[in-house]
Specification:
The structure is a homodimer of 133-residue chains. Chain A has 6 helices and 2 strands; from the N terminus they run H-H-H-H-E-E-H-H. The first copy, chain A, is mostly helical. Chain A has one domain (10-127): Arc Repressor Mutant, subunit A (Orthogonal Bundle). In chain A, strands 1-2 form a two-stranded antiparallel sheet. The first copy, chain A, is extended. The first copy, chain A, starts with 7 loop residues before the first helix and ends in a 6-residue tail after the last helix. In chain A, 34% of the residues are buried. Chains A and B meet through helix 1, helix 2, helix 3, helix 5 and helix 6 of A and helix 1, helix 2, helix 3, helix 5 and helix 6 of B. Chain A binds a DNA duplex (30 and 30 nucleotides) through residues 26-27, 42-44, 47, 52, 54-60, 79-83. Chains A, B: It comes from Niastella soli.
Chain lengths: 133, 133
DNA sequence: TAGGGCACTTTCCTAAAGGAAAGTAGTACC
DNA sequence: GGTACTACTTTCCTTTAGGAAAGTGCCCTA
């Protein structure tokens, strides 16, 4: 039997899916978003809140998140000068996706390893709520 | 202000999200799933249906998809011997996620480039339906 | 016995992601 | 003048993903 080619519309879908994945991929994007959501605003605070991240990577990821309009970089010009990063409302549109990815991941881990991996019902939803800790 | 650390539960969420991303990442996973869903079953058919994929990559991706129980490899032992790949029902649990990723990606593209990127309303849903084309 | 199809594997290579460590420019404080 | 803090950047290195091309083992048909 000859191979069936996918409809072009499907390939467009693949492209759109990949666009999204590109936005949330990168080993630290989620950690950064969480760090912002629990109240960290400044470069060094964000860095200190994420064990293992280097300034180079943090700078790069922040730039990408800003380009995607998920966060905003603001220069506060009193003394001493400060730079703050804050997540935009637009970032909230990612939450259902992140939640779904999390749920699927938890379930998948159970399926594959067939062992419990229980979590109190505090989810990304809570991690992402306006006031953390 | 000192950096706020994320709650451990949030880090577990990040892990779960990454688990899921790992499953659907890989440049060709989605294409392969689509190829299977439109009726391709055999190695060379799948390969021919996805322009640009090499046998090495295809073999690797198929192995990973099988490990994640999204597809099944079956040896059909009459003559000539055949090997068929079929997606498992479990793969369907990914559809809502893929759909959400696609929708977000389409919208994001509009937001970033501010230009229309219209698609007839046939989505992954239709790409993934049991009988393609 | 030669050639061809199938389902891969092997070898070699390139590009991109990611990381460690050090450096830098501006300001402030002592 | 020296030290420290902030927000990065730069250099160099390692790891990983992915790809091109060729090869392999098996069976089948002519």
């Amino acid at each position: 039997m000859a191979a069936k080619k996918a409809k072009p519309v499907c390939l467009d879908s693949v492209k759109a899916v990949r666009d999204t994945l590109e936005v949330i991929n990168g080993k630290w994007k989620l950690d950064i978003l969480i760090s912002l959501s629990i109240g960290n605003e400044r470069f060094t605070d964000i860095q200190d809140s994420i064990p293992g991240i280097t300034p180079k990577i943090l700078a790069k990821e922040l730039k990408e998140l800003e380009q995607h309009q998920l966060i905003k970089r603001t220069i506060i010009d009193d003394y001493p000068i400060k730079i703050v990063y804050r997540s935009e409302n637009y970032a909230h549109t990612l939450h259902p996706i992140i939640y779904a990815l999390k749920e699927w991941g938890l379930n998948h881990r159970k399926k594959i390893f067939n062992k419990g991996y229980v979590e109190t019902d505090a989810a990304i939803a809570s991690c992402m709520s306006e006031e953390g800790t």
